Amino acid sequence: MTHQYPALTAEQKKELSDIALRIVAPGKGILAADESVGDMAKRLNQIGVENTEENRRLYRQVLFSADSRVKKCIGGVIFFHETMYQKADDGTPFVQMIKDKGIVVGIKVDKGVVPLAGTDGETTTQGLDGLSERCAQYKKDGADFAKWRCVLKISDNTPSALAIMENANVLARYASICQQNGIVPIVEPEILPDGDHDLKRCQYVTEKVLAAVYKALSDHHVYLEGTLLKPNMVTPGHSCPTKYSPEEIAMATVTALRRTVPPAVPGVTFLSGGQSEEEASINLNAINTCPLARPWALTFSYGRALQASALSAWRGQRDNASAATEEFVKRAEVNGLAALGKYEGSGDESGAAAQSLYVANHAY
Amino acid sequence: MTHQFPALSPEQKKALSDIAQRIVASGKGILAADESVGTMGNRLQKINVENTEENRRAFREILFSSDISINQSIGGVILFHETLYQKDSSGKSFPALIKEKGIVVGIKLDKGTAPLAGTNGETTIQGKKRSKYDHDCTVLSSTGLDGLAERCAQYKKDGADFGKWRAVLKITSTTPSQLAIQENANTLARYASICQQHGLVPIVEPEILPDGDHDLQRCQYVTEKVLAAVYKALNDHHVYLEGTLLKPNMVTAGHSCPKKYTPQDVAIATVTTLLRTVPAAVPGICFLSGGQSEEEASLNLNAMNQSPLPKPWKLTFSYGRALQASALAAWVGKSENKKAAQEAFRKRAQINSLACRGQYVVSGKTDAAAMQSLFTASYTY
């Protein structure tokens, strides 16, 4: 605590900061296409497609074949390990396809949740073993940022002090290791939307969790200007009887962030956490038109909320590929507008866009 | 951690937030006139004036009876306990005199430092009287929050709307220690929590002394660690950030550091530190002057407000010595010098008002008193 032993040189800091700013440049957000094999099974199952490596490759090809319209609204794509080394039909590596569009490549590096003994079903996330070597290799293979997801849940006696402290600590270790290898860490402390708690409860818990996260990042000497935050929006629990407007969600979310996220953090890229495509866009837009001052970029890192329509348009058929790609581009553009506070809503309440994408107790 | 038991009602929050906003309204800062009896003794000794209650009263009257236009530059005044109950020559109480100018009255709530056992001369804050050992800072630690709630309630009745509590840390090869940081952060958070319960906006002051030969980077590193601990503690104690103010040191080199830095260096280091640690919900940051000369304190504040870095909070002043040195030198204890002393004070207040908008342009010469370093080694109350 008394002396500084600098973790990063000035050049390393600049590189990290530049990468982070490119990802969250105005109007841009992240496509989270890092579903594990198990997660993809659920997605493909829903459209009656077999979960083979080839089908996963074909599906990601649908997304990555998007035309230059996505350059304006997608700043980064998060890959799963397998996908980093897959290629398009014409042999072009996916990593290269993304980089050729001027989009930054990211990689999921956590290895899923594991139980915390003595708690009420709480977890931490594993993946620190050999992480440095893996980061170095991913950097060589084209990745410039990474993502690591921790999970907390709200119930009568959770999240516990241990769960908050342990997850904050493991996120800070991960972030520190990433930065040593030129990789911008996206820090994701997800508080699940499961439960019947109200908006206030979620806000309270989110503030406690984020305060712990940023204290841990400080303790671990993490360079905040070279990180991104991927939190949940502050919302009521999924079975909460009270309904709230996007504006209320926006105020609760931005207030929580203003109380906990240092302005040095360049961007906050929200997870969609089971919100429908349209809900996730409307809420993001409300966040960006909220009257409170917002010193960081507020944008998206959406998985399901960017891909649901594309998936159901594709249904595993090559003939549907361009239509599916088009669905993805549409959602990407909408969220790009929402990240600028310029999205006026679709007016279309039916179809895949509005369908709730909530999956109970979502774990990888 | 699992459930919220709200510490404040929405009305209480609004009242605190409104007070804080008034203190740091655009172009305004704080006059720290809360020197204890002992510290006033040091000030008065320098101008050969006896440290009597009447002399202390007379000097404060000079400041507080300034023309009402002083309220363009001064949003709040911090008083020492004795001063809160003093009156001007016409019998008007000092709080009334200050409030009728639309300026918020504050009160110093700590009573100085007490040692932390097992540390290298480090301290925490107490709310009790000093012992004869305090000067050395080598004896046992003590608490300091006893009876604070009752004192806050009384001060609120007597006209105060904000409080101030100073914690002290120092930089050496072995300090600040983990314990000193954690203990001072915790005590500041307890104080802040108690204040808010009684409608007082807490000014949180974690001062890292400028003593030493460390460079700017070292001060920046330590300040980042200290402020991160302070804000974690405030969060743990459920303090409502929108109803607080921060009074930190600027990030500067140690006073005996051989390397010299410009106001721009100080500005970048300071604002970077704050961006990494102070949530945007905090309405204002009012720097202590910590021994800088009047002019230095203004130039540094100005450089911060001119710097291209984002500034989501107000960056303003809470100056004691750096607002009063010239006034004291002009007064030298003589009532016939009152106007000259007031003019000297008004000038510094106005300059600092410009500095907190990044609009201070230095012209011509600055006088000797303004440039004189006000550094006092190992400054304690």
How would you characterize the overall build of this protein?
In chain A, 43% of the residues lie in helices and 14% in strands. In chain A, helix 8 packs parallel to helix 9 (246-260), helix 10 (277-289) packs antiparallel against helix 11 and helix 10 packs parallel to helix 12. Chain A has twelve helices and ten strands. With 381 residues, chain B is an alpha/beta fold. Chain B has a single domain, classed as TIM Barrel (Alpha-Beta Barrel). Chain B has 13 helices and ten strands. Chain B has helices spanning 10-23, 37-46, 53-64, 81-84, 94-99, 148-157, 178-197, 216-236, 263-277, 294-306, 321-331, 338-355, 368-371; strands at 29-33, 74-79, 104-108, 113-115, 123-125, 162-169, 201-208, 245-246, 284-287, 314-319. In chain B, the strands form two sheets. Chain B has an eight-stranded parallel sheet with strand order 8-7-6-3-2-1-10-9. Chain B has a two-stranded antiparallel sheet with strand order 4-5. In chain B, helix 7 packs across helix 8, helix 9 (263-277) crosses helix 10 and helix 11 (321-331) packs antiparallel against helix 12. Chain B is globular.
Give the SSE map:
The complex is a heterodimer of chains A (364) and B (381).
Chain A (H helix, E strand, L loop, with lengths): L9 H14 L5 E5 L3 H10 L6 H12 L9 E6 L1 H4 L9 H7 L3 E5 L4 E3 L7 E3 L5 H10 L4 E8 L8 H20 L3 E8 L7 H21 L8 E2 L16 H15 L6 E4 L6 H13 L7 E6 L1 H11 L6 H18 L26
Helix pairs in contact in A: 3-12, 7-8, 8-9, 9-10, 10-11, 10-12, 11-12
Chain B lengths: L9 H14 L5 E5 L3 H10 L6 H12 L9 E6 L1 H4 L9 H6 L4 E5 L4 E3 L7 E3 L22 H10 L4 E8 L8 H20 L3 E8 L7 H21 L8 E2 L16 H15 L6 E4 L6 H13 L7 E6 L1 H11 L6 H18 L12 H4 L10
Parallel strand pairs in B: 1-2, 1-10, 2-3, 3-6, 6-7, 7-8, 9-10
Antiparallel strand pairs in B: 4-5
Helix pairs in contact in B: 7-8, 8-9, 9-10, 10-11, 10-12, 11-12
